[in-house]
């Protein structure tokens, strides 16, 4: 007794192949109508195999399937439509929770405020919510400035970080005029712990970088940072934060200022390379590399002179 696959007209055989290739004699036409293939919903496949008059002995196989097979009502259950309702619901849910946490930023409990800051921080890192923030920017800026002024410890650091994240969300629309005074006061206040001052210093440099539309503002702040890292009596964390912020602003500084900076700051940065702090060594080395990279396009002679100085120093 032979297998069902010995008979090509058997339904199970047709389920294994879509269309059976046939070789037809020249100048012959034949219509092959296979039996039912067992498709669900009563679908049947029909194949028409033709041999044109002007072709050779080898026939071409043309498969014409019933169009309903490829309709939205596929036997596999796929409808062809994408349901966006779940994504919309997820966005609405996220925005509701974000709004609740923004409201909790003014809670009387420091623990509650810090928890809300942490959630908003996480959301700002993962999502672009600039449209959602429309109409809430003033409220957020007020919370941030008050937190930097009055809070302490982790809450002050988190508010300074929030200022940076908000500047990323808003770009040039960020209210730098409100954030800059409180950040400047905090980083200069010797009564505030060093790590909190360093965070405020980093936040100030980053916010100016993100909304750098005034070159004069950039230059003035770079001079402030130069005063920080030039003072060897300061805590290494403050010196390193000043170096990193200075390097960041260097990337948006006017090109005409680069040669002056090489002449004025190279010896200071070179001295910092010999610091006992590994963090200061790394940050000063990065600042020197960036300075020469930017100077390469504007003054080759200046670069060579400074490189000779660097070589003779070591």
Descriptive account of the structure:
It contains twelve helices and two strands, in the order αββααααααααααα. The protein is mostly helical. A two-stranded antiparallel sheet has the order 1-2. Helix 10 (258-272) packs parallel to helix 12 (300-313). It starts with 10 loop residues before the first helix and ends with a helix. Mean pLDDT is 77; it is low at 1-6, 13-23 and 37-72.
Helical amount: 55-70%
Write out the strand line-up for the largest beta sheet, numbering strands in chain order.
1-2
> Biggest β-sheet, characterized?
2 strands, antiparallel
DSSP strand content: under 5%
Structural class: mainly alpha
Runs with pLDDT <50, length 5+? 1-6, 13-23, 37-72
The ordered H/E elements are HEEHHHHHHHHHHH
Number-wise, the strands total 2
Please tell me the overall pLDDT.
77
Shape: globular
Oligomeric state of the chains in view: single chain
- What is the radius of gyration? 35 Å
Distance between the termini: 94 Å
Number of helices: 12
């Amino acid at each position: 007794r032979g297998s069902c696959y010995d008979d090509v007209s058997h339904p199970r055989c047709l389920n294994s192949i879509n269309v059976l290739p046939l070789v037809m004699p020249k100048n012959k036409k034949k219509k092959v109508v296979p039996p039912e293939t067992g498709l669900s919903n009563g679908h049947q496949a029909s194949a028409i195999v033709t041999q044109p008059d002007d072709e050779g002995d080898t026939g071409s196989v043309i498969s014409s399937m019933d169009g309903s097979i490829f309709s939205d009502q596929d036997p596999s259950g796929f409808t062809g439509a994408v349901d966006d309702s779940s994504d919309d619901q997820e966005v609405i849910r996220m925005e509701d929770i974000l709004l609740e946490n923004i409201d909790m930023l003014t809670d009387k409990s420091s623990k509650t405020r810090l928890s809300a800051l942490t959630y908003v921080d996480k959301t700002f890192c993962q999502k672009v919510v600039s449209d959602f923030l429309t109409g809430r920017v003033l409220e957020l800026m007020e919370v941030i400035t008050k937190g930097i002024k009055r809070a302490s410890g982790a809450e002050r650091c988190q508010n300074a970080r929030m200022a940076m994240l908000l500047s990323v969300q808003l770009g040039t629309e960020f209210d730098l005029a409100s954030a800059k005074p409180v950040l400047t006061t905090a980083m200069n206040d010797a009564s505030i712990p060093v790590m909190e001052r360093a965070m405020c210093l980093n936040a100030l440099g980053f916010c100016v970088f993100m909304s750098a539309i005034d070159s004069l503002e950039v230059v003035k702040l770079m001079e402030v940072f130069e005063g920080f890292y030039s003072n060897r009596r300061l805590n290494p964390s403050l010196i390193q934060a000043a170096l990193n912020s200075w390097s960041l602003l260097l990337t948006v500084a006017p090109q005409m200022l680069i040669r002056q900076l090489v002449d004025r700051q190279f010896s200071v940065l070179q001295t910092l390379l010999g610091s006992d702090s590994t963090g200061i060594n790394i940050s000063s080395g990065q600042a020197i590399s960036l300075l020469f990279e930017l100077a390469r396009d504007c003054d080759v002679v200046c670069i060579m002179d400074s490189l000779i100085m660097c070589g003779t120093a070591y």
